[in-house]
Amino acid sequence: MMTVVLSISFVALIFVDPLGDFVGNGTNLMLLTAVIMGVFMTIFSSYAGTIAIPQDRVAPIVALMATLIIHQMPGADPDKIGLTVLAAIASSTLLVGLSLFFLGTYKLGNIVRFTPYPVIGGFLAGSGWLLVTGSFRVITGEPFSIHSLENMISSGQIMDWLPCAVFGTIAYLAVRFSRLFFTLPALVFSAIVIFYVWLNFDHHNLSDARQHGWILGVQPDTGLKHIQTFPSLLGADWSVIVNQYSTLIALLLTSIVSILLNTSALELAADEEIDLNKELRAAGLANLLGGFSGGMIGFQSLSLSALPLGMGVRSRLVGLFSALVCLFLLWFGTGLLGYIPKFILGGILFYNGISFLAEWIIDAYFRMIREDYFLVVLILAIVAVFGYLQGIGAGIIIATVLFVLKYSSVNVISSILSGDNHHSTVDRSPLEARLLDKEGGQIHILRLKGFIFFGSANNLFYTIRDRQADPNLPRLAYVILDFQQVSGLDTSGIVSISKLSRLAKKTDFIILAASVPVDIQNSFRSAGLLKEGSGQVRILRDRDYSIEWCENDILKRELVDERNEVKSLSQILAEFHPWRVDTGGLLDYMERLEVDKNYYLILQGDPSHELFFIESGKVKVTVELDNGRAMRIRTMGAGTVVGEIGLYLNQQRLASVVTEEPCTIYRLNAETLQRMEQENPALASAFHEFMVCVLAERVTQQNRTLRALVE
Q1: DSSP string, 57-90
Q2: Which of 146, 281, 660, 672 supports an S-S bond with 104, CB 3.0-4.6 Å?
Q3: How far apart are CA 24 and CA 221, in angstroms?
Q4: Which residues does 694 contact at the CB level (< 8 Å), separation at least 6?
């Protein structure tokens, strides 16, 4: 019942003067659309309870297209105008069908989800406005305007439209506040009965009702034998149809987004996952067949598909039965439809219209942020004053501008670190560690995120410039840009990095870029930022290697006198603050090793029974990953100790330790340590105190780094 009434209400909306003689053709194409959509979606939809009909979300745009065609063909033969409108409707259906099938076949449905939500709300609210004004047109036969409304009020014709508005308002309130599934069908049936009871008591007959335009009247040329397929419409004025390209695009976008909205909402209502791409393919095939048959755009109806859920029914028979009823009317004629009161058709349009308006003007006020809500209202106002397409176009432009402005205000710097509280994973000697604590403030580390473009790139440049100019901080010598979480960089971002390069050359600091994607490296290279010389950008593997590079440069510059001096382990240990006993005795308990590069001191997975003191050279700690690759987690130089945790906890080695260069190393195993504890308890106690301080120093440094990352 609702499928038929909704379909005929769209006929009344689209086929007004001078298209009055084509009401029968319009009835044919609407019912045919309901048949094709119902059967196809019943068979091919991924949700068993889907009901597909001609759509209220596109009907006002189709009506707008019909009005534009009429205005572009002044003085033309009405039959030519009607044929052109029918051809335009069929063409739009074919276009939508082809596009939907393409999107579904190539699984591109999710792309449309990037349409800004306020724009979706705005054009649904705009559709509601067009449906409300369309109800006015159904009753009066004239487009809605302030002038036509004034004429109706002055002539008393407003009373003709008032029953339509009253019925639509009652229907909306009843459906909104009643959870009974039969509310709307019962209202439609009751209104028809009340109309004919009133007609009888007021001593009017059917001829009077037709003469006053209260009912549709007998519809000529209806039924299956009068269906006009697409080939029969080729005599239309196609130049006028081509000029409707903007309206066709609006129909296409509205259809795609509406299917997505309906499907997502139906998933929630049915608590069942629905295959979006399968729905697009099914709707695409149905519209291709419908367009070739001269039908209108149709797809899944949220309201009608949700009706059977209230009855506890999830069956494909529901949609099939609805389609068969429409087929029955086409087969045996649609004369009965001529007795439906016009105020009910207009009232159904009014009901749908205010449902959209209430959802996006009243309900949205309480669930949307104010900026998005303002955009919805603005789009609606533009639609009401200037037109549907202008409103949608303005909404997309405004939403894009607002997005750019909002994203520009998002800081691409996720955190700012300093070299005095964020060291590399290289373990240093006590002297080097103290020096880096003192001079590490020269290293300025910026962890970047997201997409860097003109607004955010300028913020990056100004942040570094302000740091360089701050007299209360150590001199800026190194800037590390960590690109690990950066998704992209536009030309404006390259320009800002170039400005940063010029600032580095002028004020003498070094720029290092870590974890830089290949495409951004190519952009740097094209901009001339990777050449040798002052102010250029150095590319390093990751942030840790970049910090290590800066630390090595500081140590090389600051330890001019000590850098060529090779210290013994006794001298290194003597520099360590808590060591208060003769270290010479310790060496008697350790084995001295001279090893070459790539020598494994510790192998991951082996048992732990020894630790190593590094007197000279450098080793790295690596972890073997599941994919066979080795990841460096730490580098250790002269004056450091490795393997102590495994020795104390007596557990399997969690990582490997391999030399990076020839090294001099002292080994202390568990058996020898136990002998030391027995023979020289004071030395053993001092050794344990030393190890506690080493571990505490590492924990302290890790806490400082973690705190810097969190802050």
Answers
A1: TTHHHHHHHHHHHHHHSTT--HHHHHHHHHHHHH
A2: 281
A3: 5
A4: 641, 644
Packed helices 342-357 and 158-177: angle between N→C axes, nearest 10 degrees: 50
SS3 299: strand
Q: Alpha-carbon distance 323 to 320, whole Å?
A: 5
Closest CA to 705 of 433, 438, 424: 424
Q: How many CB atoms lie within 10 A of CB 247?
A: 21
Q: What is the mean pLDDT of residues 463-485?
A: 92
Closest to 257 in 3D by CA, of 58, 75, 444, 76: 58
CA gap 358, 454 in Å, rounded: 39
Percentage of the residues of the chain whose pLDDT score is greater than 90: 18
Q: State residue 622 phi and psi, 5-degree precision.
A: -125, 155
How deeply is 578 buried, as exposed, middle or buried, from its count of CB atoms within 10 A (0-12, 13-18, 19+)?
A: exposed
Residues 3/325, Cβ–Cβ less than 8 Å = yes
Confidence class for position 221, pLDDT limits 50, 70, 90: low
- Angle 525-481-701 from CA coordinates, rounded to 5°: 145
Give the sheet arrangement for strand 600-602, strand by strand: 426-427, 630-636, 619-624, 656-659, 600-602
Residues 6+ apart with CB under 8 A from 321: none
Query: Cα–Cα–Cα angle for 205, 206, 210, nearest 5°?
Result: 125
| Calpha distance 218→422 (Å, rounded) | 85
**Is the per-residue pLDDT at 563 higher than 50?**
no
C-alpha pair distances (Å), 107 with each of 46, 111, 112, 288: 15, 9, 11, 18
* Number of alpha carbons in the 13 Å side-chain half-sphere of residue 205: 1
Residue for token digits 């960590």?
482
- Assign 310 a pLDDT band (cuts: 50, 70, 90): low
Measured in whole angstroms, how far is the alpha carbon of residue 707 from the centre of its chain?
A: 32
Q: State the pLDDT at residue 468.
A: 92
Are the CB atoms for 104 and 280 separated by under 8 Å? yes
As a three-state string, the secondary structure of 412-465 is CEEEEEECCCCCCCEECCHHHHHHHHHHHHHEEEEEEEEEECHHHHHHHHHHHH
The dihedral formed by the CA atoms of 131, 137, 138 and 142, expressed in degrees to the nearest 10: -160
* Rounded distance between C-alpha atoms, residue 112 and residue 264, angstroms: 13
Cα–Cα distance for residue pair 111/601, rounded to 1 Å = 54
Alpha-carbon span 73 to 90, nearest angstrom: 19
The pLDDT-based confidence of 455 (bands split at 50, 70, 90) is low
Distance, in Å, from the CA atom of 300 to the CA atom of 203, rounded to the nearest integer, reads 43
Q: What pLDDT is attached to residue 312?
A: 64
Q: What is the CA radius of gyration of the chain?
A: 39
Answer whether 66's CB lies under 8 Å from 75's CB: no
- Which of these, 554, 642, 555, 656, lies nearest to 602 by C-alpha position? 656
Query: CA angle 390-393-396, nearest 5°?
Result: 145
- What confidence score (pLDDT) does residue 356 get? 80
Place of tokens 């039965």: 321
What is the mean predicted confidence (pLDDT) over 399-416?
A: 79
Sequence letter at residue 319: G
> How much is the pTM?
0.60
Q: Per-residue DSSP letters for 261-290?
A: HHHHHHHHHHTS---HHHHHHHHHHHHHHH
Q: Average pLDDT of the chain? A: 82
The pLDDT of residue 465 is: 93
pLDDT > 70 fraction of the chain, expressed in percent and rounded: 88
pLDDT in tens, 585-598: 788 888 999 999 99
Structure tokens at 589: 């308990």
pLDDT of residue 516: 93
Distance, in Å, from the CA atom of 653 to the CA atom of 608, rounded to the nearest integer, reads 6
